[in-house]
Amino acid sequence: MSFQQLCESSPYNFISSSNIKLIASLSLSLQSALASTLSIQSSYSVFTGNEEKCYLWYLLTYVESCQSCLPEPRAYPSNFSLSIASLDLESTSTSTSSSLSFKRRLPLFFKRFLLHLPDKLFHIHKLRKFNLFHYSSHLSGSSKVCRNFTYLFASHLSDRHSPRLRSIFLNNLLSYGLSPIIAHSIVNSFPLSHLEHYFYFSSHYLHKTCHVSSYFASIYGILEDPLLSYLARNSSVSLYYVAHGGGYGLHPNLLLHYIESTGCSELILWCFGRFPIRQTRFPKKIIKHKVPIIAFVLSVGANPQCISYFTRLSHQINYMLRNSGFTSKVFLHPNSLHINEFIHLDVGVSHKLHSSYSLVVYDNIGHTLMWDRIENNLAFLIVDYDHPIDYDLLDKDVMNFVKFLSGLKILLGSDQVLGEILYLIHSMIELEPFPERYVRLNAWYQSFPDLFELASSLA
Questions:
Q1: Which DSSP string corresponds to 327-356?
Q2: Which of 46, 76, 213, 416 could pair with 161 as two cysteines, CB 3.0-4.6 Å apart?
Q3: Rounded distance, CA 77 to CA 127, Å?
Q4: What stretches in the chain show pLDDT beneath 50?
Q5: What is the pTM of this model?
Protein backbone atom coordinates (compact mmCIF):
# COMPACT_ATOMS: atom_id res chain seq x y z
CA MET A 1 0.00 0.00 0.00
CA SER A 2 1.42 3.39 -1.02
CA PHE A 3 1.77 6.29 1.39
CA GLN A 4 -1.01 8.17 -0.42
CA GLN A 5 -3.31 5.19 0.10
CA LEU A 6 -2.37 5.15 3.79
CA CYS A 7 -3.33 8.83 3.98
CA GLU A 8 -6.77 7.96 2.56
CA SER A 9 -7.42 5.69 5.57
CA SER A 10 -5.63 7.78 8.21
CA PRO A 11 -7.31 8.03 11.65
CA TYR A 12 -6.48 11.75 11.46
CA ASN A 13 -8.42 12.20 8.21
CA PHE A 14 -11.51 13.85 9.66
CA ILE A 15 -12.22 16.87 11.84
CA SER A 16 -12.64 16.12 15.53
CA SER A 17 -11.81 18.11 18.64
CA SER A 18 -9.13 15.57 19.61
CA ASN A 19 -7.44 15.69 16.18
CA ILE A 20 -7.49 19.50 16.10
CA LYS A 21 -6.04 19.71 19.63
CA LEU A 22 -3.35 17.13 18.83
CA ILE A 23 -2.16 18.98 15.71
CA ALA A 24 -2.25 22.34 17.54
CA SER A 25 -0.27 20.93 20.47
CA LEU A 26 2.38 19.39 18.20
CA SER A 27 2.61 22.63 16.23
CA LEU A 28 3.20 24.69 19.40
CA SER A 29 5.86 22.26 20.64
CA LEU A 30 7.57 22.23 17.23
CA GLN A 31 7.63 26.03 17.03
CA SER A 32 8.96 26.36 20.60
CA ALA A 33 11.67 23.75 20.03
CA LEU A 34 12.70 25.38 16.76
CA ALA A 35 12.84 28.84 18.37
CA SER A 36 15.06 27.46 21.17
CA THR A 37 17.33 25.74 18.66
CA LEU A 38 17.75 28.90 16.57
CA SER A 39 17.92 31.19 19.63
CA ILE A 40 15.10 33.42 18.43
CA GLN A 41 12.09 34.75 20.32
CA SER A 42 9.48 32.06 20.90
CA SER A 43 6.73 34.59 20.17
CA TYR A 44 8.04 35.10 16.62
CA SER A 45 6.24 32.93 14.10
CA VAL A 46 8.60 30.74 12.11
CA PHE A 47 5.90 29.18 9.94
CA THR A 48 3.41 30.50 7.39
CA GLY A 49 -0.14 29.51 6.57
CA ASN A 50 -0.24 26.35 8.73
CA GLU A 51 2.52 24.77 6.63
CA GLU A 52 3.88 23.02 9.73
CA LYS A 53 0.43 21.63 10.61
CA CYS A 54 0.07 20.15 7.13
CA TYR A 55 3.52 18.57 7.50
CA LEU A 56 2.65 17.24 10.98
CA TRP A 57 -0.57 15.69 9.66
CA TYR A 58 1.40 13.63 7.14
CA LEU A 59 4.01 12.79 9.79
CA LEU A 60 1.33 11.50 12.18
CA THR A 61 -0.12 9.37 9.39
CA TYR A 62 3.32 7.87 8.75
CA VAL A 63 3.99 7.12 12.43
CA GLU A 64 0.50 5.65 12.92
CA SER A 65 0.90 3.29 9.95
CA CYS A 66 4.53 2.27 10.47
CA GLN A 67 4.74 2.35 14.29
CA SER A 68 8.40 3.35 13.98
CA CYS A 69 10.36 6.55 13.52
CA LEU A 70 11.47 7.67 10.09
CA PRO A 71 15.03 6.49 9.36
CA GLU A 72 17.77 9.06 8.83
CA PRO A 73 17.83 10.02 5.15
CA ARG A 74 20.80 10.03 2.80
CA ALA A 75 19.99 13.65 1.97
CA TYR A 76 17.80 15.94 4.05
CA PRO A 77 14.85 17.59 2.27
CA SER A 78 15.20 21.21 1.25
CA ASN A 79 11.53 22.15 1.76
CA PHE A 80 8.35 20.91 3.44
CA SER A 81 7.05 19.40 0.21
CA LEU A 82 10.09 17.12 0.00
CA SER A 83 9.76 16.45 3.73
CA ILE A 84 6.31 15.02 3.09
CA ALA A 85 7.63 13.07 0.10
CA SER A 86 10.36 11.60 2.31
CA LEU A 87 7.66 9.94 4.41
CA ASP A 88 6.83 7.74 1.42
CA LEU A 89 9.50 5.07 1.69
CA GLU A 90 8.52 3.72 -1.76
CA SER A 91 9.33 7.05 -3.37
CA THR A 92 12.68 7.59 -5.04
CA SER A 93 12.27 11.33 -5.58
CA THR A 94 13.28 12.69 -2.19
CA SER A 95 16.76 13.89 -3.04
CA THR A 96 17.13 17.61 -2.53
CA SER A 97 19.81 18.97 -4.80
CA SER A 98 23.01 18.16 -6.61
CA SER A 99 25.80 16.57 -4.61
CA LEU A 100 28.47 18.36 -6.67
CA SER A 101 31.26 20.03 -4.75
CA PHE A 102 31.13 23.80 -4.32
CA LYS A 103 33.97 24.32 -6.84
CA ARG A 104 32.13 22.33 -9.49
CA ARG A 105 28.78 23.91 -8.60
CA LEU A 106 30.01 27.51 -8.83
CA PRO A 107 30.29 27.67 -12.67
CA LEU A 108 26.84 26.10 -12.93
CA PHE A 109 25.51 28.72 -10.52
CA PHE A 110 26.81 31.61 -12.66
CA LYS A 111 25.48 29.96 -15.83
CA ARG A 112 22.07 29.55 -14.23
CA PHE A 113 22.22 33.11 -12.90
CA LEU A 114 22.71 34.54 -16.40
CA LEU A 115 20.10 32.20 -17.86
CA HIS A 116 17.48 33.20 -15.30
CA LEU A 117 18.36 36.90 -15.06
CA PRO A 118 15.35 38.10 -17.13
CA ASP A 119 13.10 35.82 -15.04
CA LYS A 120 14.55 37.22 -11.82
CA LEU A 121 13.99 40.81 -12.92
CA PHE A 122 10.40 39.90 -13.82
CA HIS A 123 9.81 38.42 -10.36
CA ILE A 124 11.42 41.36 -8.56
CA HIS A 125 9.06 43.61 -10.52
CA LYS A 126 6.11 41.45 -9.43
CA LEU A 127 7.13 41.87 -5.77
CA ARG A 128 6.46 45.60 -6.11
CA LYS A 129 2.84 44.98 -7.12
CA PHE A 130 -0.13 44.99 -4.74
CA ASN A 131 -1.11 41.37 -5.55
CA LEU A 132 1.22 38.44 -6.15
CA PHE A 133 -0.05 35.28 -7.87
CA HIS A 134 2.07 32.21 -7.24
CA TYR A 135 1.95 29.47 -9.87
CA SER A 136 0.37 27.14 -7.28
CA SER A 137 -2.73 29.38 -7.27
CA HIS A 138 -3.19 29.36 -11.03
CA LEU A 139 -1.74 26.43 -12.97
CA SER A 140 -3.11 27.36 -16.38
CA GLY A 141 -0.02 29.29 -17.49
CA SER A 142 -1.00 32.97 -17.26
CA SER A 143 1.73 35.60 -17.71
CA LYS A 144 0.52 37.19 -14.47
CA VAL A 145 1.72 34.22 -12.44
CA CYS A 146 5.09 33.92 -10.68
CA ARG A 147 7.25 30.81 -10.68
CA ASN A 148 9.03 29.14 -7.76
CA PHE A 149 11.00 31.90 -5.97
CA THR A 150 13.30 29.44 -4.20
CA TYR A 151 14.35 27.85 -7.47
CA LEU A 152 15.13 31.22 -9.00
CA PHE A 153 16.81 32.95 -6.06
CA ALA A 154 18.11 30.24 -3.72
CA SER A 155 18.95 27.16 -5.80
CA HIS A 156 22.65 27.60 -4.97
CA LEU A 157 22.16 26.68 -1.29
CA SER A 158 24.05 23.68 0.03
CA ASP A 159 22.18 20.47 0.77
CA ARG A 160 24.42 19.71 3.74
CA HIS A 161 22.81 19.42 7.12
CA SER A 162 24.29 20.25 10.52
CA PRO A 163 24.51 17.19 12.82
CA ARG A 164 25.16 19.48 15.79
CA LEU A 165 22.12 21.63 15.07
CA ARG A 166 19.92 18.57 14.49
CA SER A 167 21.09 17.09 17.79
CA ILE A 168 20.16 20.28 19.65
CA PHE A 169 16.84 20.32 17.83
CA LEU A 170 16.12 16.73 18.91
CA ASN A 171 16.87 17.49 22.56
CA ASN A 172 14.60 20.54 22.43
CA LEU A 173 11.76 18.54 20.85
CA LEU A 174 12.04 15.94 23.60
CA SER A 175 12.18 18.63 26.30
CA TYR A 176 8.89 20.10 25.00
CA GLY A 177 7.14 16.78 25.56
CA LEU A 178 7.19 15.13 22.14
CA SER A 179 7.46 11.35 22.14
CA PRO A 180 10.79 9.89 20.94
CA ILE A 181 9.20 8.38 17.84
CA ILE A 182 7.67 11.72 16.80
CA ALA A 183 10.78 13.74 17.75
CA HIS A 184 13.18 11.49 15.80
CA SER A 185 10.84 11.44 12.79
CA ILE A 186 10.70 15.24 12.77
CA VAL A 187 14.49 15.59 13.01
CA ASN A 188 14.97 13.06 10.19
CA SER A 189 12.49 14.75 7.84
CA PHE A 190 12.57 18.43 8.82
CA PRO A 191 13.54 20.66 5.89
CA LEU A 192 16.83 22.51 5.63
CA SER A 193 14.88 25.65 4.70
CA HIS A 194 13.52 26.04 8.24
CA LEU A 195 16.59 24.97 10.21
CA GLU A 196 20.03 25.17 8.59
CA HIS A 197 18.95 27.85 6.09
CA TYR A 198 16.57 29.72 8.37
CA PHE A 199 18.69 32.86 8.72
CA TYR A 200 19.47 32.97 4.98
CA PHE A 201 15.78 32.96 4.06
CA SER A 202 14.67 35.27 6.89
CA SER A 203 17.20 37.95 5.82
CA HIS A 204 17.00 37.47 2.03
CA TYR A 205 17.42 40.67 0.03
CA LEU A 206 13.98 40.22 -1.57
CA HIS A 207 12.39 41.24 1.74
CA LYS A 208 13.62 44.81 1.11
CA THR A 209 12.07 45.03 -2.36
CA CYS A 210 8.78 43.33 -1.49
CA HIS A 211 5.67 45.56 -1.32
CA VAL A 212 3.04 42.86 -1.80
CA SER A 213 -0.13 43.21 0.25
CA SER A 214 -1.95 40.07 -0.89
CA TYR A 215 -0.44 36.70 -1.77
CA PHE A 216 -2.42 34.14 -3.77
CA ALA A 217 -1.09 30.58 -3.55
CA SER A 218 -2.04 27.10 -2.42
CA ILE A 219 -0.76 25.49 0.75
CA TYR A 220 1.30 23.12 -1.40
CA GLY A 221 2.90 26.12 -3.09
CA ILE A 222 3.96 27.38 0.34
CA LEU A 223 5.29 23.92 1.23
CA GLU A 224 7.52 23.63 -1.84
CA ASP A 225 8.63 27.27 -2.10
CA PRO A 226 10.22 28.27 1.24
CA LEU A 227 11.26 31.71 0.02
CA LEU A 228 7.61 32.50 -0.74
CA SER A 229 6.74 31.27 2.76
CA TYR A 230 9.25 33.66 4.32
CA LEU A 231 8.12 36.59 2.15
CA ALA A 232 4.50 36.04 3.15
CA ARG A 233 5.38 35.79 6.86
CA ASN A 234 4.12 39.22 7.74
CA SER A 235 1.11 40.02 9.89
CA SER A 236 0.23 43.03 7.72
CA VAL A 237 -0.30 41.03 4.51
CA SER A 238 -3.16 38.79 3.41
CA LEU A 239 -2.51 35.21 2.37
CA TYR A 240 -5.21 33.68 0.20
CA TYR A 241 -5.20 29.97 -0.51
CA VAL A 242 -6.80 28.83 -3.76
CA ALA A 243 -8.34 25.38 -4.18
CA HIS A 244 -6.17 23.08 -6.27
CA GLY A 245 -8.59 20.18 -6.74
CA GLY A 246 -12.21 19.29 -7.29
CA GLY A 247 -12.97 17.96 -3.82
CA TYR A 248 -12.97 21.32 -2.02
CA GLY A 249 -16.37 22.19 -0.61
CA LEU A 250 -17.58 18.61 -1.10
CA HIS A 251 -15.69 17.20 1.90
CA PRO A 252 -16.12 19.80 4.68
CA ASN A 253 -15.18 17.27 7.37
CA LEU A 254 -11.61 16.65 6.13
CA LEU A 255 -8.93 17.77 8.60
CA LEU A 256 -6.46 18.74 5.87
CA HIS A 257 -9.01 21.12 4.32
CA TYR A 258 -9.63 22.56 7.80
CA ILE A 259 -5.88 23.11 8.25
CA GLU A 260 -5.76 24.96 4.93
CA SER A 261 -8.82 27.12 5.58
CA THR A 262 -7.63 28.19 9.06
CA GLY A 263 -4.11 28.98 7.85
CA CYS A 264 -5.04 31.81 5.48
CA SER A 265 -7.14 34.95 5.25
CA GLU A 266 -9.60 33.12 3.00
CA LEU A 267 -9.75 29.79 1.19
CA ILE A 268 -10.95 30.58 -2.33
CA LEU A 269 -12.95 27.75 -3.90
CA TRP A 270 -14.01 26.92 -7.43
CA CYS A 271 -17.59 28.23 -7.75
CA PHE A 272 -18.31 27.87 -4.01
CA GLY A 273 -17.83 29.82 -0.79
CA ARG A 274 -17.57 33.53 0.05
CA PHE A 275 -15.33 34.32 -2.93
CA PRO A 276 -16.20 31.82 -5.68
CA ILE A 277 -14.08 31.81 -8.84
CA ARG A 278 -13.74 29.76 -12.02
CA GLN A 279 -11.31 26.86 -11.79
CA THR A 280 -7.58 27.68 -11.90
CA ARG A 281 -6.01 24.37 -12.89
CA PHE A 282 -6.85 23.71 -16.55
CA PRO A 283 -6.25 26.05 -19.50
CA LYS A 284 -8.81 26.93 -22.10
CA LYS A 285 -8.27 24.62 -25.08
CA ILE A 286 -9.24 24.51 -28.72
CA ILE A 287 -10.35 20.93 -29.38
CA LYS A 288 -9.78 20.38 -33.10
CA HIS A 289 -10.58 16.70 -33.18
CA LYS A 290 -12.72 14.66 -30.81
CA VAL A 291 -11.92 10.99 -30.39
CA PRO A 292 -15.04 8.74 -30.61
CA ILE A 293 -14.47 7.24 -27.18
CA ILE A 294 -16.68 7.16 -24.09
CA ALA A 295 -14.29 7.22 -21.13
CA PHE A 296 -15.30 5.97 -17.70
CA VAL A 297 -12.85 7.72 -15.34
CA LEU A 298 -12.89 6.24 -11.85
CA SER A 299 -11.76 7.79 -8.56
CA VAL A 300 -9.10 6.48 -6.20
CA GLY A 301 -11.77 5.16 -3.85
CA ALA A 302 -13.60 3.04 -6.42
CA ASN A 303 -14.09 -0.41 -4.89
CA PRO A 304 -14.24 -3.74 -6.81
CA GLN A 305 -18.05 -3.59 -7.00
CA CYS A 306 -17.90 -0.10 -8.51
CA ILE A 307 -15.16 -1.09 -10.98
CA SER A 308 -17.10 -4.22 -12.00
CA TYR A 309 -20.25 -2.15 -12.52
CA PHE A 310 -18.50 0.26 -14.91
CA THR A 311 -16.72 -2.61 -16.66
CA ARG A 312 -20.07 -4.30 -17.36
CA LEU A 313 -21.55 -0.97 -18.46
CA SER A 314 -18.63 -0.45 -20.85
CA HIS A 315 -19.09 -3.91 -22.38
CA GLN A 316 -22.82 -3.28 -22.79
CA ILE A 317 -22.23 0.05 -24.52
CA ASN A 318 -19.56 -1.42 -26.81
CA TYR A 319 -22.05 -4.08 -27.90
CA MET A 320 -24.90 -1.61 -28.44
CA LEU A 321 -22.70 0.85 -30.37
CA ARG A 322 -20.68 -1.79 -32.26
CA ASN A 323 -21.54 -0.34 -35.68
CA SER A 324 -21.40 3.35 -34.75
CA GLY A 325 -17.66 3.94 -34.69
CA PHE A 326 -17.79 4.70 -30.96
CA THR A 327 -16.18 2.59 -28.28
CA SER A 328 -15.76 2.87 -24.52
CA LYS A 329 -12.92 2.41 -22.03
CA VAL A 330 -12.64 2.22 -18.25
CA PHE A 331 -9.74 4.08 -16.61
CA LEU A 332 -8.65 3.20 -13.08
CA HIS A 333 -7.08 5.84 -10.85
CA PRO A 334 -3.24 5.48 -10.77
CA ASN A 335 -3.38 5.06 -6.96
CA SER A 336 -6.20 2.53 -6.95
CA LEU A 337 -5.76 -0.42 -4.60
CA HIS A 338 -7.32 -2.74 -7.19
CA ILE A 339 -5.08 -2.36 -10.26
CA ASN A 340 -3.78 -5.92 -9.96
CA GLU A 341 -7.33 -7.27 -9.77
CA PHE A 342 -8.31 -5.53 -13.03
CA ILE A 343 -5.12 -5.76 -15.08
CA HIS A 344 -7.09 -5.61 -18.34
CA LEU A 345 -8.21 -2.01 -17.63
CA ASP A 346 -6.33 1.18 -18.45
CA VAL A 347 -4.65 3.02 -15.57
CA GLY A 348 -4.71 6.82 -15.57
CA VAL A 349 -5.59 9.19 -18.38
CA SER A 350 -3.61 12.20 -19.58
CA HIS A 351 -5.14 15.67 -19.62
CA LYS A 352 -4.72 15.90 -23.38
CA LEU A 353 -6.52 12.63 -24.08
CA HIS A 354 -9.16 13.37 -21.45
CA SER A 355 -10.07 16.60 -23.24
CA SER A 356 -10.27 14.89 -26.63
CA TYR A 357 -12.80 12.19 -25.70
CA SER A 358 -16.33 12.69 -26.99
CA LEU A 359 -17.90 11.86 -23.63
CA VAL A 360 -16.46 11.27 -20.15
CA VAL A 361 -18.37 9.59 -17.33
CA TYR A 362 -17.17 9.96 -13.70
CA ASP A 363 -18.04 7.78 -10.74
CA ASN A 364 -18.57 10.69 -8.31
CA ILE A 365 -18.92 14.46 -8.20
CA GLY A 366 -15.54 15.13 -6.59
CA HIS A 367 -13.34 14.55 -9.66
CA THR A 368 -10.84 17.31 -10.38
CA LEU A 369 -10.81 16.42 -14.10
CA MET A 370 -14.52 17.25 -14.26
CA TRP A 371 -13.58 20.93 -14.10
CA ASP A 372 -11.52 20.58 -17.27
CA ARG A 373 -14.69 19.50 -19.06
CA ILE A 374 -16.65 22.37 -17.50
CA GLU A 375 -13.95 24.93 -18.42
CA ASN A 376 -13.89 23.80 -22.05
CA ASN A 377 -17.66 23.22 -22.37
CA LEU A 378 -17.35 19.50 -23.11
CA ALA A 379 -19.90 16.76 -22.55
CA PHE A 380 -19.67 14.67 -19.39
CA LEU A 381 -21.87 12.72 -16.98
CA ILE A 382 -21.53 11.77 -13.31
CA VAL A 383 -22.88 8.52 -11.92
CA ASP A 384 -23.87 8.84 -8.28
CA TYR A 385 -22.54 5.34 -7.56
CA ASP A 386 -21.75 4.54 -3.91
CA HIS A 387 -20.68 8.17 -3.42
CA PRO A 388 -18.29 8.99 -0.52
CA ILE A 389 -19.87 12.43 -0.03
CA ASP A 390 -22.17 13.12 2.92
CA TYR A 391 -24.69 15.48 1.34
CA ASP A 392 -26.08 16.42 4.77
CA LEU A 393 -22.79 18.18 5.61
CA LEU A 394 -22.65 20.34 2.48
CA ASP A 395 -23.03 24.12 2.51
CA LYS A 396 -26.10 25.54 0.83
CA ASP A 397 -24.31 26.73 -2.34
CA VAL A 398 -22.57 23.35 -2.78
CA MET A 399 -25.86 21.51 -2.32
CA ASN A 400 -27.47 23.84 -4.86
CA PHE A 401 -24.73 22.83 -7.33
CA VAL A 402 -25.50 19.15 -6.71
CA LYS A 403 -29.22 19.79 -7.31
CA PHE A 404 -28.40 21.88 -10.40
CA LEU A 405 -26.39 19.02 -11.95
CA SER A 406 -29.17 16.57 -11.09
CA GLY A 407 -31.77 18.83 -12.69
CA LEU A 408 -29.66 19.06 -15.85
CA LYS A 409 -29.42 15.24 -15.97
CA ILE A 410 -25.64 15.41 -15.68
CA LEU A 411 -25.56 13.86 -12.20
CA LEU A 412 -27.42 10.58 -12.57
CA GLY A 413 -28.36 7.43 -10.72
CA SER A 414 -26.84 4.14 -11.88
CA ASP A 415 -30.19 3.14 -13.41
CA GLN A 416 -30.30 6.28 -15.62
CA VAL A 417 -26.81 6.51 -17.06
CA LEU A 418 -27.07 3.99 -19.93
CA GLY A 419 -30.03 5.77 -21.52
CA GLU A 420 -28.36 9.19 -21.23
CA ILE A 421 -25.09 7.93 -22.75
CA LEU A 422 -26.94 6.45 -25.73
CA TYR A 423 -28.94 9.66 -26.15
CA LEU A 424 -25.83 11.86 -26.16
CA ILE A 425 -23.91 9.60 -28.53
CA HIS A 426 -26.89 9.50 -30.90
CA SER A 427 -26.95 13.34 -30.84
CA MET A 428 -23.27 13.41 -31.78
CA ILE A 429 -23.72 10.89 -34.59
CA GLU A 430 -26.66 12.87 -35.99
CA LEU A 431 -24.69 16.14 -35.61
CA GLU A 432 -27.46 17.68 -33.55
CA PRO A 433 -26.88 21.00 -31.69
CA PHE A 434 -24.86 20.82 -28.49
CA PRO A 435 -27.24 19.66 -25.73
CA GLU A 436 -29.00 22.43 -23.83
CA ARG A 437 -27.88 21.02 -20.47
CA TYR A 438 -24.26 21.95 -21.18
CA VAL A 439 -25.19 25.38 -22.52
CA ARG A 440 -26.92 26.11 -19.20
CA LEU A 441 -24.01 24.71 -17.19
CA ASN A 442 -21.55 26.87 -19.12
CA ALA A 443 -23.69 29.98 -18.56
CA TRP A 444 -23.71 29.26 -14.81
CA TYR A 445 -19.95 28.67 -14.78
CA GLN A 446 -19.13 31.83 -16.75
CA SER A 447 -21.07 33.91 -14.23
CA PHE A 448 -18.15 33.57 -11.80
CA PRO A 449 -15.04 35.79 -11.98
CA ASP A 450 -11.58 34.41 -12.61
CA LEU A 451 -8.92 34.69 -9.91
CA PHE A 452 -7.45 37.93 -11.27
CA GLU A 453 -10.83 39.64 -11.44
CA LEU A 454 -11.58 38.58 -7.86
CA ALA A 455 -8.18 39.86 -6.66
CA SER A 456 -8.87 43.26 -8.23
CA SER A 457 -12.22 43.47 -6.41
CA LEU A 458 -10.56 42.59 -3.09
CA ALA A 459 -7.92 45.33 -3.43
A1: EEEEEE-TT-TTTGGGTTSEE---HHHHHH
A2: 76
A3: 27
A4: 91-100, 102
A5: 0.89
